[in-house]
Give the backbone structure.
Amino acid sequence: MAIKQGGFERKSKTSDEIPSSSLADIAFLLLIFFMVTTVFRTDRDRPIEWPQAEATEKIDEKKKNILNIWVERDGSVWMNDRPYAMNDLAPTVAPLYASSDRHLVISVRSDREVPYRFIDQIQEQLVAAGVVRVVFATELERSMTRERR
Amino acid sequence: MAVLNNKKSKVSDEVPTSSMADIAFLLLIFFLVTTVFPKDSGLAIVLPEEAEEVEVSQKNILHIIVNPNGIVTLRRGESQQEQQVRPSDMEGIWRQEIASNPNLIAAVKTHPDAAYRFMIDVLDALQTAGAERISLQLLEG
């Protein structure tokens, strides 16, 4: 009997390599998950500080039927990455509302420190545009944060 | 040339799959980075139709006045008595009021200079207490 491998016998038949044959499968699975869940942003976020509310709930409407109106701390109004004058809101929103088959939901994303007169003007514009469903975008407030304030 | 069965090409006849995982991971990282999970949440309200004005008896109105300093002034219907409360107390107050008068309407009147978040605090308290008939107005005068 010839002496192999310096007299040492290999005891285990398991491979000493990390099994990599399923790596591509795992990668593709994750890839498909992210491809399906990805929603590309329609507009960029404006720099605002969100107000907080305990009663915050999810908007029950398709993403494409949600229109964001941003109000910055100085009262400037932004929609679809463009600044708007307050009086131009109603003429802009009305055709969008009509083309969405009255499904459009307006999400008012306003800075928490904005004086209320701007919010009231926006509400007037939306009423003039005929929109009925409006959401004041807020962050969910947990009771803990409230007690700390 | 004695050997007949000589392979002419050394190119493999299989689709090269060794770089597949790399491609998949590249795409994976791209989607990982670009994914933004939608954050659409807030306090939902339904605005009235234009020119829809309803006369409401004063006794069914709870005037909730939001002051610029965040303090809430309460006035019930026609009475001139005012009560100062904190926005966080509104939830309990509304539950008491609605129990004694189920037709009550919350008229939230916010001062033009009051910060938006004070109105949200009051609206939050009302919605947490289950209020359905809420009117949002600008404080006049």
About this structure: Chain A touches chain B through 56 residues (CB under 8 Å).
